[in-house]
TrEMBL record:
Coiled-coil ranges (or none): 45-121, 147-184
Annotated keywords: Coiled coil
Coiled coil is among the record's keywords: yes
Protein name: Uncharacterized protein
Length: 337
C-alpha cells in the first residue's frame, strides 16, 4: 500500500526543515515501509503518531478522571458546606441550651431561696399546730368532763324518777303501816306537844324480836347500797335517793364511766363482793318492815344477826351468819380509806 502525504499534513508532526524536500511517498512492500526518500524518519513519524494517539487517549482518560474527581470534590465541598451549616446550627443550639442552663441555674437559686422560706414557714406552722393540738386536747378534756357531768345528771334524773315511783308506792304502804302501828302501840307512844324531846331522834334500839332484827338488817342493807352507789358515783349522786346495787350495774353498763368502773372493781376485790352479797341485801331489804328507817348501830346490827341466826327465820340457807357479818363489815367501813 502506498500512502501519499503532503507537507501540510506533516507540519504538525515534523519541523519545517524536515519537510522542505517536498512530497514523500511511502510504499509498503512485504511488510516493510519504504519511502522514496528519508525512510528512517518516516518510521519514527509513524511511531510518534501511535504514541501521540496513545497519549491522547491517556490524556482523555485523565481528563475524565479529573472531571470525576472534580464532581467528587464538588460533592464533598457541598457536603462540607452542609456540615458547616449543621455545625453552625449545632453551635446555635449549644448557645441556646447554655442560655437555658443559665436560666435554670437562676431559677434553681430562686427555688432554693423559696425552699428556705417554706421551711421556715413550715416550722412556724408546726408550732402553731402543736399549740392547736394542746388546745384541742384541753378542750377535749373539758368536753369529756362536761359529758360525764351530763351523763351523771341524766343518770341521776333517771334514778330519781325510778325511786320516786317506788317511793310513792312505799309511801302509801308506809302510811297504812304507821296507822296500824300507832293503833297497836298507842299506849307506849309519847304524847305530842311535850317539847323538843318529843321530836328528837331516839337512840339506836337493840332489837329483841325476829321482826325487829329483820328491820335492822334491812335498814343496814338500804344504807349499805346507798353508800356503795355514792362512792362509785360521787359527783352524780343525791342525798335523799335510795340507790340500790342494781342501779350501779345498770348505770355502769349504760354510761360507760371508766373511773366508776375502776372504783366498783376495787370494792369487789377489797370485800370479795359477788352475787351472793347482792342477793342478800336485796332479800333483807325486801323482807324488812317497811314501817320506817330505824336508827341502827353496830351493836344493834350484831344483835340482829344473832337473833336471826337463833330463830332461823330466813328461808334461804345460803344467807348465813358469815355473809351477814361480811355485809356489816362493808356497812361500817370507810370506803375512802
Amino acid at each position: 500500500m502506498e500512502l501519499g502525504m503532503t507537507d501540510d499534513k506533516y507540519s504538525q508532526l515534523l519541523p519545517a526543515s524536515d519537510l522542505s524536500i517536498g512530497s514523500i511517498t511511502i510504499v509498503e512492500r512485504e511488510g516493510q515501509l519504504v519511502g522514496e526518500k528519508n525512510l528512517p524518519r518516516a518510521v519514527k513519524i509513524h511511531e510518534h503518531g501511535e504514541k501521540i494517539e496513545s497519549l491522547e487517549k491517556e490524556i482523555k482518560k485523565k481528563d475524565n478522571e479529573i472531571v470525576a474527581l472534580q464532581k467528587t470534590l464538588q460533592a464533598l465541598q457541598e457536603k462540607n458546606d452542609e456540615l458547616e451549616s449543621a455545625l453552625d446550627r449545632k453551635g446555635e443550639e449549644i448557645d441556646t441550651l447554655q442560655s437555658r442552663i443559665d436560666e435554670l441555674e437562676d431559677e434553681k437559686t430562686e427555688l432554693q431561696r423559696e425552699l428556705g422560706s417554706v421551711k421556715t414557714d413550715l416550722g412556724l406552722l408546726r408550732k402553731e399546730v402543736d399549740k392547736l393540738r394542746k388546745a384541742k386536747s384541753s378542750q377535749d378534756q373539758t368536753n369529756l368532763k362536761c359529758r360525764q357531768e351530763y351523763d351523771g345528771l341524766r343518770r341521776t334524773l333517771e334514778t330519781t324518777r325510778e325511786d320516786l315511783e317506788k317511793k310513792t308506792k312505799e309511801s302509801e304502804e308506809l302510811k297504812q303501816e304507821v296507822r296500824d302501828i300507832k293503833e297497836s302501840h298507842h299506849k307506849s307512844l309519847l304524847p305530842f306537844g311535850l317539847g323538843a324531846r318529843a321530836h328528837s331522834k331516839p337512840p339506836p334500839a337493840i332489837p329483841k324480836t325476829s321482826g325487829e332484827a329483820l328491820l335492822h338488817l334491812g335498814e343496814m342493807c338500804r344504807q349499805l347500797q346507798i353508800k356503795l352507789y355514792r362512792f362509785v358515783f360521787p359527783r352524780t349522786s343525791f342525798k335523799h335517793i335510795n340507790y340500790k346495787v342494781d342501779a350501779i350495774h345498770r348505770h355502769l353498763k349504760k354510761f360507760q364511766d371508766s373511773d366508776a368502773q375502776k372504783i366498783w372493781e376495787s370494792i369487789q376485790e377489797r370485800f370479795h363482793w359477788d352475787e351472793t352479797h347482792e342477793e342478800a341485801v336485796t332479800l333483807l331489804q325486801d323482807t324488812r318492815n317497811i314501817e320506817a328507817h330505824p336508827e341502827i348501830s353496830k351493836d344493834s346490827l350484831q344483835r340482829a344477826i344473832s337473833i336471826t341466826a337463833q330463830s332461823n327465820n330466813l328461808e334461804d340457807n345460803w344467807l348465813s351468819t358469815k355473809l351477814l357479818q361480811e355485809l356489816l363489815k362493808i356497812w361500817e367501813t370507810d370506803l375512802s380509806q
